[in-house]
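To whoever picks this up:

The nightly regression suite flagged Sulfurtransferase TusA family protein as changed. Nothing in the input moved, so I suspect the structure step. Input below, exactly as stored in the fixture:
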Amino acid sequence: MNADKLLDAKGLACPMPIVKTKKAINELNTGEVLEIHATDKGAKSDLTAWAKSGGHELLQDTEEDGVLKFWVKKG
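Regenerated output under the current build:
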């Protein structure tokens, strides 16, 4: 999946992946996609809830070699 911006949040513990995601998504225009890479296992539930509460759309999430990858479309 293509993204307009990539955020590397690997190695960061909660709440830093969400803090950095919020900052990064603010730099995008509505409809653009942010790709996030994280290793914190709590990031999946945190990002899912954060996207929903913020009016954004979680397009896809996968896990590869311990790295969680998310694609969030800015609402």
